[in-house]
Design goal:
The chain has 168 residues and is an all-alpha fold. It has one domain (6-155). 80% of the residues lie in helices and 0% in strands. The chain has helices at 6-38, 40-43, 53-81, 91-113, 120-123, 127-167. Helix 3 (53-81) packs antiparallel against helix 4 (91-113) and helix 4 packs antiparallel against helix 6.
């Protein structure tokens, strides 16, 4: 079995990390879309048919939130997998937009009706995946990619400059 040079080892690790990021970017929207397709009345509606303009605005934000949860990880992580890091910094925003919009909506409902309306998570536990698990996982993925990719790039630069110096 051949040993990898330090540069080849770093590049291999970086390639594997990018491939994994691309897989996560592809799987996340599929899971969200399957849940949306299973419960379309929870996700697909006209938010502006709501009589209260504040509530309509909150529902529009939550609609934007789940659409962003489909499009965002796909765009950001597949782009990362192709070697472009520029959108990675938006992953926490994408991950948190949906649950924060839900929390705002539920807070308004609690203030106006006295009910938090979180019972749907018990009645339909599959929503725990879209509302808690996927956003948390995306934050974790961001943390791993941000730290590892930065350290891989630093190691690669150090190793390549050391190899260059060794040749002199």
């Amino acid at each position: 079995m051949s040993e990898l040079t330090p540069i080849a080892a770093v590049r291999s690790q970086s390639s594997e990390l990018r491939l994994l990021a691309g897989a996560v970017g592809g799987m996340t929207p599929m899971v969200v879309l399957l849940i949306v397709a299973s419960f379309p009345r929870f996700f697909i509606f006209n938010p502006f048919s709501e009589g209260d303009p504040v509530r309509a605005g909150e529902l529009a934000l939550s609609t934007l939130g789940w659409v962003l949860l489909v499009v965002g990880p796909l765009t950001i992580l597949v782009r990362f997998a192709s070697g472009r890091r520029d959108l990675l910094r938006f992953l926490p925003f994408v991950a948190l937009f949906w649950p924060v919009s839900l929390l705002i909506s539920h807070t308004t409902l609690a203030l106006t009706t006295g009910n938090w309306y979180f019972g749907y998570l018990l009645q339909y536990p599959l929503f725990v995946i879209t509302d808690i698990v996927i956003p948390s996982f995306l934050l974790y993925v961001y943390d791993v990619l941000r730290v590892r990719e930065t350290s891989v790039n630093r190691t690669s630069r150090r190793t390549s400059s050391k190899s260059y110096q060794d040749q002199d």
